[in-house]
Amino acid sequence: MDEELPPKPGPEVDAARPAAPAGPAPAPAAPGADPASGGIPPVERQVSHASGEPPRWGKGTLSGEEGVFLRGPQPRSSEIARLLRICADFVRGVRALHFVGPCVTVFGSARFGEDHRYYTLAREMGQRLGKAGFTVMTGGGPGIMEAANRGARDVGARSIGCNIILPEEQRHNDYLDLWLEFHYFFLRKMMLVKYSYAFVVLPGGFGTMDEIFECATLIQTGKIKDFPLVLMGTEFWQPLKDFLCHRMVPEGTILPADCDRILFTDSVDEAMERILGAATREFGLVWQAAAPKDSPRWYLGEGSLPKADAGKARKAG
Question: Most buried one in 113, 212, 283, 298, CB count within 10 A?
Fold first, then answer.
């Protein structure tokens, strides 16, 4: 049989809503999104209404591409067009990040204010990473992400934000030199691993946990080797550490070595020691001035990364 299977049913879409341009190419409206919502998904609107708080940062997108992609088989012409769109997103990402230098990505919740101890810790970590010569990369949002980007900016280091296309009412923080958006979340995650030499993780929610376990799986399966995975905020992470080391290890679902690969610490010095050790030992980084072997090619969409004024990050693409 050569029949095309129907797509999995999804939320009803308001057919009267026109596709809205977002990022480098036009994207369809997010499935099920209220035209007045600006890209906030229905489930997040419900949570926001129940809690009485504004929609959480980064929980929606103006691009409906990924939602359509995950609904199951689509018409062949649509699948081919989507493959080309994925390729375009990928090429734009690798061109934009090719000359940013060695990165360390910092993850954590968007909900901590600058008076919170975790914000202070993330900012200090951003400063230390910047002083060591790393480009600091985050999801570009508020909270922990802002703190790490701000710390990099404090010491004149490069600062990058990388995420999916945000809803209309949400924007990146004011401490970025480069802001890179993707239609597809899995491409964004891949870019973070490809260009990072370590992950530093502060307290966060499901998205933060997703990054932890994806990185741990890549380390466990040998896809990335000696990649520092540093979890800061030991009081917050203690239940997770107990579950990994005192439940999963005794049950035999992971090995003690898998648990030992994750560093739990509150010390910026200890975190930097682990990161710098891996960068020089495994990745062969050398801390000295050197002429670049290659230079940006404008016709490939590449460019150098000039310092940006606060709130005026250059947008890739």
Answer: 212
Within-domain flag for 249: yes
Rounded to the nearest 5 degrees, what angle is found at the Cα of 248, between the Cα atoms of 243 and 252? 165
| Cβ-Cβ contacts under 8 Å for 157 (sequence gap 6 or more) | 126, 129, 130, 131, 133, 134, 135, 136
Average pLDDT value for residue range 195-203: 96
Which positions ≥6 away from 70 have C-beta within 8 Å?
none
Alpha helices in the chain (DSSP H): 42-51, 65-69, 76-97, 117-131, 144-154, 185-195, 206-220, 234-243, 249-251, 256-260, 268-281
Cβ atoms of residues 126 and 116 within 8 Å = no
- Tell me, yes or no, whether 106 and 48 share the same domain: no
In this structure, the answer to whether residues 252 and 129 fall within a common structural domain is yes
The whole domain housing 73 covers 20-92
Q: Please give the full DSSP string across 111-158, using - where no structure is assigned.
A: ---TTSHHHHHHHHHHHHHHHTTPEEEE-S-STHHHHHHHHHHHTT--
CB 244 within 8 A of CB 254: yes
**Per-residue confidence at 184, pLDDT binned at 50, 70, 90?**
confident
The two structure tokens encoding residue 186: 């899995």
CA 142 to chain centre: 13
Same-domain pairing of 81 and 126: no
Task: Write out pLDDT tens, residues 225-274.
Answer: 889 999 999 999 999 999 999 999 999 999 999 999 999 999 999 999 99
Contacts of 5 (CB under 8 A, 6+ apart): 72, 73
The model's pTM is: 0.75
* Residues 263, 125 within the same domain: yes
Q: Which amino acid is at 299?
A: Y
Q: Are residues 125 and 83 in the same domain?
A: no
